[in-house]
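4.2 Preliminary Data

To establish feasibility before requesting continued support, the project team ran the inverse folding procedure on a target of 457 residues. The structure was first converted into the token representation described in Section 3, and no sequence information of any kind was made available to the design step. The complete token record follows.
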């Protein structure tokens, strides 16, 4: 028997919402380079010098495109994380809305090990069952007829751009392979949106400082005001617009939900102009809002939806879901990716999907979101710099009239990991969807303390 299979039974026989201990991980993986664990199952605690050395080496060897917090994370369990010095944190960032089931979820881990023991990757030269299983789940539980797999959120939007451009050419009745053919190609996106950092998705993304150093951008982009139908109507034009990209709930842009009238109006404008409506649910999709899909809050369906972050619970994956009329224009060779839809990631994603896609799980997300917002209002709103607590489900923002970075730094020192959004003036909380009520209450207490420390009343 394969060594992994032989040791798996002994390592974990999990019930669904339990977590795997690091000791179990080491037992399953004899090649693990992890340091010996302590008797309670956690990795050995290191001193501050060790953290300093890792951070110094990171600066020496890793290209400096991230402004990382000065902590070295060692391990996690549920919505808790520990750094290498043994300090505990409530993880309200979840790897930027990724670790939907928290850290080391037992069912997630079991699916990972089960598939790793069989087959991790073949490329898309062959059929593999886990990819089909995942596509079936996504299609049967959404507006879509077909799924395309990739590896990240930006890649999902990149693919959606290509699908929309080709769809518009076919729909215009031109030969899509004729380089001289003229067809609608413009793409509309909105102020404060974030769609990714590769060249196509970047062109749609709002923040100028992400784009300017890499000019020129992809041509054919138009920007309209978010939640403003008049502005959208001025940009969406028959014969010019191929697709409109919108996040049903903006995440990076400041945790701002669309209005129902806005999304319904976009649907109408797109239909009138013969353009596709694309919902970017990379951050708000798959349970985060308390609905399986964010757009279900609004009763408006897109032609294309992009997904990524939480789908494989921490492994890289991106997905584009499309209606049949979009699928019909794409042919073999039009798009692809070596790693996309590999059996390892897809098998794990099936297990994540099955856990999230139950009425009880989704209801719990909604309840926890309500609890978190109520708790934050209780602990923070007496500080005059707190202007609003908003969001849906467990996509929560606290609008400040000061920069949020110093507050999230202070919260980290006090044991809560939170991130920022908007113009840097929003505290963004996107915890694992399995965060407990106790962790929510603790987080709110700590954020209340943090804001009062940074900006005393
Ligand atoms: C709405 C949205 N779209 C796209 C992306 C890009 O995803 P990735 O970082 O996986 O490329 C993000 C990332 O934060 C996002 O929030």
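Position-by-position output of the design step:
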């Amino acid at each position: 028997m394969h060594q992994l299979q032989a040791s798996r039974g002994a390592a974990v026989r999990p019930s669904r919402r339990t977590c795997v201990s690091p000791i179990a991980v080491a037992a399953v993986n004899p090649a693990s380079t992890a340091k010996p664990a302590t008797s309670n199952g956690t990795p050995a605690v290191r001193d501050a010098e060790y953290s300093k050395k890792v951070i110094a080496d990171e600066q020496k060897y890793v290209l400096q495109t991230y402004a990382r917090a000065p902590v070295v994370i060692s391990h996690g369990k549920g919505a808790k994380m520990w750094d290498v010095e043994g300090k505990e944190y409530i993880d309200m960032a979840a790897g930027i809305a990724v670790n939907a089931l928290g850290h080391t979820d037992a069912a997630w881990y079991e699916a990972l090990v089960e598939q790793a023991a069989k087959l991790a990757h073949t490329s898309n030269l062959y059929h593999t069952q886990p990819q089909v299983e995942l596509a079936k789940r996504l299609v049967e539980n959404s507006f879509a007829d077909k799924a395309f797999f990739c590896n990240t959120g930006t890649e999902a939007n990149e693919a959606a751009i290509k699908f929309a451009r080709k769809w518009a050419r076919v729909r215009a009745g031109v030969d899509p392979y004729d380089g001289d053919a003229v067809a609608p190609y413009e793409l509309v996106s909105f102020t404060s949106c974030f769609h990714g950092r590769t060249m196509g998705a970047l062109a749609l993304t709002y923040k100028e400082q992400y784009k300017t150093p890499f000019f020129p951008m992809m041509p054919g982009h138009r920007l309209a005001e978010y939640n403003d139908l008049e502005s959208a109507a001025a940009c969406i034009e028959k014969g010019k617009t191929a697709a409109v990209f919108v996040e049903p709930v903006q995440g990076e842009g400041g945790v701002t939900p669309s209005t129902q009238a806005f999304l319904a109006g976009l649907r109408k404008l797109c239909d009138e102009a013969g353009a596709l409506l694309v919902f970017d649910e990379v951050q708000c999709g798959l349970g985060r809002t308390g609905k399986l899909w964010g757009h279900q809050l609004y009763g408006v369906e897109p032609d294309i939806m992009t997904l990524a972050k939480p789908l494989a619970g921490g492994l890289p994956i991106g997905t584009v879901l499309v209606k049949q009329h979009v699928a019909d224009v794409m042919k073999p060779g039009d798009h692809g990716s070596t790693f996309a839809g590999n059996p390892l990631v897809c098998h794990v994603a099936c297990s994540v999907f099955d856990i999230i896609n139950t009425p009880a799980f989704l209801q719990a997300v909604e309840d926890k979101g309500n609890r978190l917002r109520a708790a934050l209002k209780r602990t923070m709103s007496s500080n005059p710099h707190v202007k609003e607590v908003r969001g849906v489900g467990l996509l929560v923002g606290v609008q400040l009239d000061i920069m949020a970075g110093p507050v999230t730094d202070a919260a980290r020192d006090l044991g809560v990991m939170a991130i920022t959004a908007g113009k840097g003036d929003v505290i963004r909380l996107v915890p694992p969807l399995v965060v407990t009520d106790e962790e929510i209450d603790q987080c709110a207490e700590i954020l209340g303390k943090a804001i009062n420390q940074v900006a005393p009343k």
